[in-house]
């Protein structure tokens, strides 16, 4: 069992990359590459690590692979940064099983979505988070990701769960910065902003989200360029907003690699995750760019376009 | 290990209810009630049993609860009807784990959806089904349920997987009978309709679906009134279409119980499943109408409305 | 002013094709071809004509073109069949203007959707239909077409407007035959089915819809093969359901022409409407297959595929 | 005919409120109130006026009401600020008719959406904008509003139409600031940012949008508090980002008035527009808070909540 982060920060602030899960060509978790990726992030100075989130291909990994991933990340982090673990499953009983396994594997905090597959009413969603928090004694983040879950967390739900301490924070991957603004204004009016952490998962509007009062960012692209997100965060933290925006612009251009697979018979997700992993391979961080089945692989032309983008961004 | 159905019918025809999963008030699988429900169905003459589908609250059950449910159904069926088991999970590796567990628990066939949470391209979806079929040697049905999965299976995907024998059949819960018509016409043109089973999951258009050439039906409402669906199926099978439509009309009126919870702070699913279970309780088939967390429960007024509907339908 | 249909039938029954609007290559209404199309339909024995609906490219026609179309159809019909006119616009004031123009141009009945662009609450939608009916004294049909309007008419809304005589009928293009079944059962329970006309716009499930009690069909494909839909309707009307289903299967295969443009840089609508018009051109009914801007045109290969389909269907 | 704005600014920058359309209780355009609203805006220093957009209830106004509105605004502006006019209609021919009428009524520029009701392919959408621009010789803005139109303008489409001068700008009401960021980065890379105006329609993320390089904002809430948006814009323009964010926070709280009608039988739109108009009434700018049929009206309690919000915001 790895040593836990001494105390989980409240609120959690900064750059918390949602780690890719490196795989072998045969589809198993490549723990050596995963350790290297953790080191790549910690050296850059990230403030936390998010394992088996959507970027970590949680939906495509077996329970055993998820456990291996969380344990490997927790051991590699060794208490140098808190480890958040996704507990992605369809509803309460299943999320609780994921949560227990993640706690056993060394997670410092949990990240859960609303139920999906079977849609719930906001009152049921609220009950869901309370039950998950009551079942496993770790800080719990709500993960608002309508593109995957097909409902958006209501501001009222998040507000109630923040006010009574059920939730330690929110990872907002809704892309709806206007709604996030209203939530932040509401949390401040309620006086719960000092302990509740609001993290944006939208990697192209981090400057705006921080300007609006968000505490940090969970950027998929941060796998590839953690230093860029650290510079962006530091510029924002110290009020150098123009610099923050310039760094964000640079990262927005690099983000174009997610379309490497456009036109091929593959999903947007397979293209984006394939591009992140191809980049990590080209940067020498991980061994293989393999993504989990049934996602299609990027072809050579696509990988070449990733290489060119890395060069333009000054990373290669 | 229960005895397997001697030979899985190809194509599977008839009424195959998606069983509710009776629970104790504490939320555990009530195996005694589940056995009684199986008997309730077999006595009525159903042609198969579908365990841990959406109506079985698969999304809300833990892996252990799913296994208990499948094993109980398989044992209670004792080879008198084939047992199909849902293997509902987000993607290939996870579905394969579900499939192995279902096979171990005694399932005669498996029912899998396309990947969800992370959306796949049709080519990736096709690969997904091939991998699931290759991994566990049981007949495999595709489960087309856009309301839960948020994509619709393409006719081309189903056609390809039917033609090469990957799939033994389709459970169509899309509600799109026009698309089903085109699929059936296409399957006949390809000559694959003699072994491939097309079952509709839309309990209000069974007469039309059978008239269009579907082989059977997987009706959630069949939990409550299996005899009604058997009469409907038999009328259709023997060309008495007006009688079939009249029976369908009667069942369509009874189906109104799914709105027992309208206006309450609960999901449509919780209302519908709560009503099915309340009806099974009122009919003396199961002990408790409890649904799985975090679904809200029907109140007394709602249950009273279910009782009235059962009386109007001649079931009480 | 053309002579009106002596008395508008209540309920309207039978086959009511939504007429294509033939255009010249320059994009103007080709009134000569339109008259020929009306004759093509009346000779086949249709029970009504629906001008400037979605199949008539209402969304792409100017007000002047809509008026020309309705007037031409009404004159060509000459009282031999009632003429329904679409009054497609975003909200009440605009629909009322369309309704007045349609009445002036000779329409016998009007077909209106719920407001779109700005979404309305069901109570507002109900008010909308009441205002339209009060403003222009013609029978009013509600047009339920979620693919265009992005809301579905609630059964409660339709029921209330049927019960008090605001609506003369419903054109259901939702594709949701299960919901239509429940509506029909409800209307019969309320005793309003004897005057209220329920027409399905789903051309592939006409047999099932008629079996469920629908009064008729508004089939886009009926432009091309009205005789097929008449045979289907007559078979159903006289209880020969197997024959009805066989005719429906034949039409379902012919319906494949809507995919003539698949793969090209054009919308599904442009492909489907282009195919209907190409077929009407190949059959010698209309002059030009032109569709309205900005819809792309089918290429030669696509038109050749339409020709082959017509041959297979025995129409060429 | 009013005097035109001497030269339409390229790019248009600043605060361009989408004007509410004041109505009499009988539902006619209240031109006196409309003139007062224009004055209210010009006194505050706005950089342009947008008439008959979504906030102007374009979808609910007849053609005659739209013309009256545009003419009144153009006359009241008297060349002191450019007047953009919405030309909201379902497709090309109809938008062209709207565009000619708007030009006749004195508009300085036009704002058009992609076709709706009948969905178009991106290539057809591009053709649509080219035809509209070719048909009426006024600067043309694309209006990206997926909540109304149900498609999102592709970055490729906007980029192509910006590069060749078809479009003078974009009003982005998609709420997707990440996509806007990528568009802005792309426009700069193409060198077309110096003449093409990017305006955000998201009133709660103006600080972030301006930080990302947007040229201005079209805020519905600006009807009520134009001075607030002017302060926000000026703070951002001069690099005082923390002040900009504070002003944005204040406006985000005021924006809560859009939920005045929550729980009532009315649409979100009717609640929001009713609240803006109630506020303008309470501020003494317009006579009546009436919204166009079939939108439901706010009740007294709702109006009282608007009054309280205005007081908290220091406007009353």
Overview of the structural elements:
Chains A, B, C, D: This is Dihydrodipicolinate synthase family protein. Chains A, B, C, D: One of its GO terms (molecular function) is 4-hydroxy-tetrahydrodipicolinate synthase activity. Chains A, B, C, D: Belongs to the DapA family. The structure is a homotetramer of 316-residue chains. Chain A is α/β, with parallel strands linked by helices. The first copy, chain A, has one domain (14-251): TIM Barrel (Alpha-Beta Barrel), CATH 3.20.20.70. Chain A is built from twelve helices and eight strands. Chain A has an eight-stranded parallel β-sheet with strand order 1-8-7-6-5-4-3-2. In chain A, helix 1 packs across helix 2 (63-77). Chain A starts with 13 loop residues before the first strand and ends with a helix. In chain A, 63% of the residues are buried. Mean pLDDT of chain A is 96; it is low at 1-5. The interface between B and C is medium-sized, with 31 and 31 residues.
């Amino acid at each position: 069992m790895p040593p836990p982060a001494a105390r989980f920060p409240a609120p959690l602030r900064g750059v918390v990359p949602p780690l890719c899960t490196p795989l072998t060509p045969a589809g198993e978790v490549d723990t050596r590459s995963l350790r290297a990726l953790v080191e790549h992030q910690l050296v850059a100075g990230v403030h936390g690590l998010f394992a088996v989130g959507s970027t970590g291909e949680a939906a495509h990994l077996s329970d055993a692979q998820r456990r291996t991933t969380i344990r490997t990340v927790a051991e590699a982090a060794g208490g140098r940064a808190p480890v958040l673990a996704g507990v992605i499953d369809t509803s309460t009983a299943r999320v609780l099983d994921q949560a227990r396994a993640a706690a056993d594997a060394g997670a410092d905090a949990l990240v859960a979505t609303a139920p999906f597959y079977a849609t719930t009413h906001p009152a049921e969603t609220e009950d869901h988070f309370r039950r998950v928090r009551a079942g496993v004694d770790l800080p719990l983040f709500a993960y608002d990701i309508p593109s995957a879950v097909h409902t958006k967390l209501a501001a009222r739900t998040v507000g109630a769960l923040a006010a009574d301490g059920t939730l330690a924070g929110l990872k907002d991957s809704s892309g709806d910065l206007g709604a996030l603004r209203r939530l932040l204004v509401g949390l401040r009016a309620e006086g719960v902003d000092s302990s509740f952490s609001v993290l944006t998962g939208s990697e192209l509007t981090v400057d705006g989200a921080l300007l609006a009062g968000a505490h940090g960012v969970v950027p998929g692209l941060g796998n590839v360029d953690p230093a860029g997100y650290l510079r962006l965060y530091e510029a924002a933290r110290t009020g150098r907003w123009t610099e923050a925006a310039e760094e964000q612009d640079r990262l927005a251009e690099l983000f174009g690699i997610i379309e490497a697979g456009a036109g091929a018979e593959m999903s947007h997700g397979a293209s984006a995750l394939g591009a992140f992993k191809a980049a990590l391979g080209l940067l020498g961080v991980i061994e293989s760019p393999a993504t989990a089945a049934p996602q299609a692989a990027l072809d050579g032309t696509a990988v070449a376009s990733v290489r060119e983008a890395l060069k333009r961004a000054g990373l290669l």
